[in-house]
Design goal:
Order of helices and strands: HEEEEEEEEEEHEEEEEEEHEEEEEEH
Distance between the termini: 33 Å
Oligomer: single chain
Radius of gyration: 30 Å
Largest sheet: 7 strands, mixed
């Protein structure tokens, strides 16, 4: 079927509009939309001076008041989304506003601000973000970014589906002069003395046990001001984090190593250093060794050779029948690392299914419109013909 003339152009224009709205979302191509000719709003963020935490404020991370300004050529008519992450700390999520969503690991927050942001407008949050907790000695940073609501960057988390929504009153915005925003979007912080050049070190450990059993070893306290150590378990073993029931049964002065949900590494940390590493011995691997390490001070270590030490493994035989424990789930099933679980694949499949459904809906709507317009055109022609002189009554 070929559509020609004025009717053909009209039908084609309507079809393009329907397909654009269904596939790209409202406002994707029309007036006031986020995109126009490939352009989009652009935001400049506040520059935050690095912050040194005084000895009297050990573990008290400074609050963050983020700010942004629309310095692009287009407004953000539907508002903006702000994503904030923190390293070496965790948000106090019970204080999260109800227009924000927080991750299970408490290190990332998304906040929605649905009011339009015109070109040249600048805003800061009406109050700082929720309080943050950290170790007694920290070296980390906040980082944040802003984009138009409804137009996220590629590969952005589906925070509404994967994160928890806050329950406190909504976080608002207050105007600020765009000229005060010079770029950045990062607030670095460090405990006093943490960055001084010093000797940080760690001693090695030995895991002993039978194949098919758990093996445990006490983690030695690191020298210097290091607050946590990183662990790489020996080949042939699997990190065995404690279950919730096991953790609840521990005395308060004991702690175990855990996997960081954000970077996937195993860390051990405790202010008093009564810390234990637990692994399952899966099989014998000749010469297998793991590694335990500490970071360096920001200004360098006076003796970096002792920042890493071996984790040795001594296998004493096969497990007794009454001591054998099931293998630890693989990383894809690991409950302490849900970001790589099968749910991620399910989300990707759901996303593709949604796109296919939208495309099908667009095609169906377009076909229905074409059919309607052609039928209407036919009725109009028949009505006009019936009014011609000599037409049958």
């Amino acid at each position: 079927m070929v559509l020609k003339g004025r009717w053909g152009r009209a039908v084609l224009a309507v079809l393009v509009t329907i397909a654009t709205v269904l596939l790209l979302g409202p406002g994707a191509g029309g007036p006031g939309g986020v995109r126009r000719g490939g352009d989009r709003p652009s935001f400049t963020l506040r520059t935050h001076e690095p912050y040194t935490i005084a000895p009297a404020d050990r573990g008290r991370i400074p609050p963050l008041t983020p700010a942004f300004g629309n310095t692009g050529r287009l407004a953000a008519p539907h508002g903006v989304v702000m994503r904030v992450t923190i390293t070496d700390g965790a948000f106090d999520t019970p204080g999260t506003p109800n227009n924000c969503y927080y991750a299970k690991h408490h290190r990332t927050i998304f906040c929605e601000f649905p009011n339009a942001v015109p070109v040249g407008a600048g805003y800061e949050t009406a109050k700082p973000l929720p309080e943050v907790f950290g170790h007694s000695l920290v070296r980390g940073a906040y980082t944040y970014s802003v984009w138009p609501l409804g137009d996220p960057p590629a590969h952005t988390e589906d925070y509404k589906a994967q994160y928890e929504r806050g329950r406190e009153p909504a976080l608002g915005l207050e105007p600020v002069a765009v000229g005060t925003l010079k770029g950045g979007g990062e607030l670095r912080f460090v405990s006093a003395g943490y960055a001084d050049r010093a000797d940080w070190g760690i001693k090695g450990i030995t895991l002993r046990g039978r194949i098919g059993e758990y093996a445990v070893a006490a983690i030695p306290a690191p020298t210097g001001l290091a607050q946590r150590v990183r662990v790489e378990v020996p080949q042939g073993t699997t990190f065995a984090p404690l279950t919730r029931e096991e953790r609840e049964g521990l005395p308060s002065e004991s702690d175990y190593c855990s996997r960081d949900q954000e970077d996937g590494n195993i860390y051990c940390s405790n202010a008093n250093w009564f810390v234990t590493l637990r692994v399952r011995i899966d099989r014998r691997v000749e010469g297998a060794e793991g590694r335990i390490s500490v970071p360096e001070p920001a200004n360098g270590d006076t003796n970096p050779s002792n920042n890493t030490a071996p984790i040795k493994l001594e296998i004493t035989g096969p497990a007794r029948a009454d001591q054998w424990v099931p293998p630890v789930p693989t990383d894809r099933d690991d409950p302490v690392n849900p970001d790589v679980s099968p749910l991620s694949s399910a989300i990707d499949i759901d996303s593709r299914t949604r796109d296919i459904a939208l495309a099908a809906a667009a095609s169906a709507a377009a076909l229905a419109l074409v059919t309607f317009l052609l039928m209407r055109r036919g009725r109009t022609r028949r009505a006009a013909a019936s009014r011609q002189p000599g037409a049958e009554e």
